[in-house]
Design goal:
Largest sheet: 8 strands, mixed
Radius of gyration: 27 Å
Structural class: alpha/beta
Number of strands: 14
Helix content: 25-40%
Distance between the termini: 18 Å
Protein name: T6SS Phospholipase effector Tle1-like catalytic domain-containing protein
Number of helices: 27
Shape: globular
Length: about 725
């Protein structure tokens, strides 16, 4: 069961994150047995942070740039980093929580480890640059999980050895993480010719044995417990869940290397696996869902119930994500993990957009929609005893990365009011979104966010809005099929129409396939005449991104992708170039000329000045449009789309895993909830005035707790996050 969206925005954040006396009592009670003031006894706390696909804090927060590899040495060439201002940061919520975790306290048993998202550099495991295979197929996910497991062993060894030496150095862990992929699942022979398959447990046995042997020689300090807190976003969330299973496999009677071990908290932002053959294949080809579900290799484990070693957690699910390549995998684990809808698309929940992308969240970090699930996750984790620093103790720079501004808060509250207490229903969230899309069909280009978007984003939004209009035409045709003559001799749309209609709708209209139940409902919601309240319109206008418009199956996404493409094109014979490659060559040549003129101190015209400035820390690139699709696409995606982006469109329901059933007859375990329609609103009765209730609470500092009791608390916050 997916819980309702939190009603109140966490504003002001410092009040929202200030624990009440009762909450502080709970935190103290949870953490009292996981801390020690004596050097002879050190409980270990390890925070593990798995970032999402194409999320990398060094690039997104620190401006680190990686050069394109030299053709001979294969080593990335040197390139200047880009200095970023606070309002340019685009690091994810996982990265922000990583910085908030207890730091510089290894001597007291606190360790934290960050795993960069798949598709981005992770030099320690051999990934020197960004990679298409990582972004598309999650290559590199398993080495990141093994890296994290070995870092837990490292934390134990470092604590036992007084922080002198780790069990393994970073380069050794990286090599082992890569070796695991090659070795596990294969057979190993002994001197007598016996062969036995190497399993996950047997592979780790030698490393755990090495750790246990080292501890035998160092009985002090006593390590009474190992407690983990694990966070993840997107495929990083899938890695986090898989980590929990693989960690549990290594426990013997709930102990790791003889030490009681547990996972205290699992914090997930919109879990997406899409490992191996994507679920979109099953939607576009006659392939059984059980085969093409995006849960290959290590990702199979996340379909299993969570292991007993996991205590509590929170899973924030993006209510408005629709891409068929981004199905969410729920946990469905009773009351262990609270799963909760948050409005917005994938990165509106997990973070990763910079302020102003697509013109949304303009001006500051506090204007980003993803700040709200971040605050709720921060609070839930703190209440479960995760050693995140109290908000008031964070450095000012980090506090700024957690703020929520008043305009966002008021828009959020207007949106949740419009949910009418039905925030646990996907249909209610999508109803409001589709009504907004209908209202903005003709006026999208007049709103402030569109005007503030960069030229490429404007192009993407225009192309997608045109596609939406085509989908509405196709769906209206399909909705009338039952009343039409069955002797139609002509097709409803021409081949030229294919670029203006999503492939999903186009093919079904051409084959005269009636609307399915979801599509019937979606078209009805889209056609709703009643206008949305102004502040709900503002919520979508200014804060909710369009992930379909910005997600390319064809074309370069990141600055590194564009630079690598330009580098490749510039090595070609200019006379043989055509289409989009010719555009890349032309703009790159102009930029190089402008840079040289600037270096010589020559006067530049406006175009040259713009190119030279952009080239200093970026890559000038042609605007990609749907007319470039043929040049940008490869044959692998032709079954999904006729444009640059995936062909599901805005009227396709997102996939929800786990599934149950057989072959082609499988459905989500969440299906009953996903199909529930909102009820007719009822007038609420006046709240009864309850008598005061007094609770016994634990206080470690009476003066501080009394000040907290007097502090003004934000009404209604945290009501859905009562993790006990």
């Amino acid at each position: 069961m997916i819980s309702k969206t939190p009603i109140s925005a966490p504003f002001p954040v410092d009040n929202f994150l200030l624990p009440s006396i009762k909450e502080q009592s709970k935190i103290s009670m949870i953490t009292c047995d996981k801390s020690s003031d004596t050097k002879c006894s050190i409980p270990i706390r390890v925070g593990l942070f798995f970032d999402g696909t194409n999320n990398n804090l060094e690039r997104d927060r620190d401006g680190k740039r990686i050069g394109v590899p030299d053709s001979k040495t294969k080593i990335p060439v040197f390139i200047k980093n880009k200095p970023l201002k606070l309002e340019e940061y685009s690091h994810s919520n996982v990265a922000r929580l990583f910085f908030a975790f207890a730091q510089n306290k290894e001597g007291s048993g606190y360790f934290r480890n960050y795993m960069a998202g798949v598709g981005t550099p992770f030099p320690e495991i051999g990934e020197l640059t960004e990679s298409d295979d990582g972004k598309a197929f999650a290559k590199g996910g398993q080495p990141r999980i093994i890296w994290a497991l070995l870092q837990v062993l490292n934390a134990i060894h470092l604590t036992a050895d007084g922080l002198k030496t780790p069990l393994y150095k970073p380069e050794e862990i990286g090599k082992y993480a890569q070796d695991y992929d090659e070795e596990v699942g294969k057979s190993d022979g002994d001197v007598y010719g016996n062969r036995q398959q190497i399993t996950h447990v047997s592979w780790f046995a030698k490393h755990i044995a090495k750790l246990e042997k080292a501890r035998e020689t160092r009985p002090k300090p006593l390590i009474p417990s190992v407690t983990l807190d694990v966070f993840g976003f997107s495929r990083g969330a899938a890695q986090a869940v898989a980590f929990c299973h693989l960690f549990n496999d290594l426990l013997v009677e709930n102990k790791l290397a003889g030490i009681p071990a547990t996972i205290n908290f699992l914090g997930l932002f919109d879990t997406v696996a899409t490992v191996g053959v994507s679920a979109s294949v099953a939607r576009t080809l006659p392939v059984p869902d059980g085969f093409a579900d995006g849960h290959f290799s290590w990702a199979k484990r996340i379909l299993d119930p969570l292991p007993a070693c996991v205590n509590k957690g929170l899973h924030c699910i993006a209510a408005h994500e629709q891409r068929m390549n981004f199905p969410v995998t729920g946990l469905a684990t009773g009351n262990k993990i609270i799963e909760m809808y948050f409005p917005g698309v994938h990165s509106d929940v997990g973070g990763g957009y910079a302020p102003g992308e697509q013109g949304k969240g303009r001006g500051a970090q506090a204007a980003m929609l993803s700040q709200i699930p971040l605050a709720y996750m921060y609070k839930a984790a703190r209440l479960q005893g995760v050693p995140l620093q109290p908000f008031s103790e964070l450095e000012t720079r980090l506090q700024d990365e957690f703020q929520v501004d008043l305009n966002l808060a008021s828009a959020w509250n207007a949106y949740t009011k419009a949910l009418d207490d039905e925030g646990g229903l996907l249909l209610k969230h999508m109803e409001l979104y589709l009504r907004w899309r209908a209202a903005r069909m003709e006026s999208l280009e007049q709103i402030a966010s569109f005007k503030a978007a960069d030229p490429q984003a404007q192009q993407d939004l225009q192309d997608s809005n045109r596609m939406l209009a085509g989908d509405v035409r196709a769906m209206k045709f399909r909705s009338k099929l039952n009343s039409m003559s069955k002797d139609m001799n002509s097709l409803p749309f021409s081949q030229a129409d294919a670029v203006n209609i999503s492939q999903w709708q186009y093919l079904r209209a051409q084959k005269s396939v009636p609307l399915n139940k979801w599509e019937q409902w979606a078209l009805s919601a889209y056609n709703t005449a009643e206008a949305l309240p102004d502040d709900v319109m503002r919520f979508f206008d200014d804060y909710v991104h369009d992930s379909l418009a910005g997600f390319y199956l064809a074309g370069e996404v990141t600055e590194y992708d564009k630079r690598a493409k330009a580098s490749k094109v510039m090595k070609e014979n200019p006379g043989t170039l055509k289409g989009f490659d010719k555009k890349v060559f032309d703009i790159t040549s102009k930029a190089q000329v402008a840079q040289k003129k600037k270096e010589r101190g020559e006067i530049l015209n406006q175009e040259e000045e713009n190119l030279a400035n952009e080239a200093e820390y970026g890559t000038p690139y042609p605007i990609m449009t749907d007319t470039d699709s043929a040049d940008l696409r490869n044959a692998m995606i032709l079954t999904q789309t006729s444009t640059r982006r995936e062909g599901g469109g805005y009227f396709m329901r997102r996939g929800y895993y786990p599934h149950e059933g057989f072959l082609f007859f499988r459905r989500s375990k969440y299906e009953n909830q996903l199909q529930r329609t909102p009820r007719v609103p009822k007038t609420s009765k006046a709240d009864k005035k309850d008598s005061p209730v007094f609770d016994m609470v634990w206080s470690e500092d009476m003066a501080t707790d009394l000040r907290i009791a007097d502090a003004r608390q934000f009404n209604g916050y945290g009501a859905n996050l009562a993790i006990v």
